[in-house]
Write a structure and sequence with these properties.
With about 220 residues, the protein is an all-alpha fold. The protein has one domain. The chain has eleven helices and no strands. It has helices at about 5-20, 25-45, 50-75, 75-80, 85-95, 95-120, 120-125, 130-150, 150-160, 160-185, 195-220. α4 packs antiparallel against α5 and α8 (about 130-150) runs antiparallel to α10 (about 160-185). This is Ferric oxidoreductase domain-containing protein.
Length: about 220
């Protein structure tokens, strides 16, 4: 029997979820998370009367919510392989929707950045650099491409090899960008080191899962 490709895995996840779905799964999960992020962002901005400081608070909040959702999606398969239980199976089934929720969070983040740029051009220029435009722009291009190909038809259109390359390389690029974005703030604000912990943990889990997957093949050889 030939091995399934990654697109078949996505379709199987969808089928399994339709058979075993709880309330908080699939598109409902995506809708609840997205609406919650929008509501929380509006509430945070309103704490400062929707002025510049409130918008900057939204930027910080969505950067952190994006980090959390990214780690949940990026580590889902590794966790399900290493520690199969009800939570990790739920996470694995819903990694597509966690990934799309991450994209929604970062879309709100982008809107807040644009609003900040319009409300306080001088402050925005001081807070950004050419590097942030370049690498941030690449990051958003990756997010858009990965989100677009999270749907079965688009994934089938580009084929399993291109799909896997895009999501693998794109995932690692976003991981690296999060490491740089949060890591560069640690010298001035040591508390930001806490945000590096889930990123390092997810990478460690992926490496361990990859090693455990290759070990049986090595033993057979």
């Amino acid at each position: 029997m030939p091995p399934r490709n990654v697109i078949d895995d996505y379709i199987m996840e969808e089928t399994t979820m339709s058979q075993r779905q709880s309330w908080f799964e699939g598109w409902r999960l995506l809708a609840v998370l997205t609406l919650s992020l929008i509501a929380l962002s509006l509430w945070i901005a309103s704490m400062r009367q929707f002025e510049v400081e409130g918008v900057r608070m939204v930027i910080r909040f969505t950067a952190r919510s994006s980090l959390l959702l990214f780690c949940l999606a990026f580590g889902a398969a590794a966790l399900a392989r290493l520690w199969p239980n009800a939570w990790t199976r739920w996470q694995r089934r819903n990694r597509r929707y966690l990934g799309l929720s991450f994209a929604a969070s970062h879309a709100i983040h982008a809107v807040a950045i644009v609003v900040f740029a319009k409300m306080d051009p001088a402050g925005f220029a001081e807070a950004t650099s050419a590097a942030s435009y370049i690498f941030g722009g690449i990051g958003y291009a990756v997010i858009i491409a990965m989100s677009a190909t999270s749907f079965d038809r688009a994934a089938a259109l580009i084929g399993p090899r291109a799909w896997r390359a895009l999501h693998l390389v794109g995932g690692y690029y976003l991981w690296f960008q999060f490491m740089v974005s949060f890591g560069k703030r640690v010298p001035a604000m040591p508390g930001y080191a806490a945000f590096l912990i889930p990123l390092l943990a997810v990478m460690a889990l992926r490496m361990i899962a990859m090693a455990s997957r290759s070990t049986p093949q090595t033993a057979k050889a």
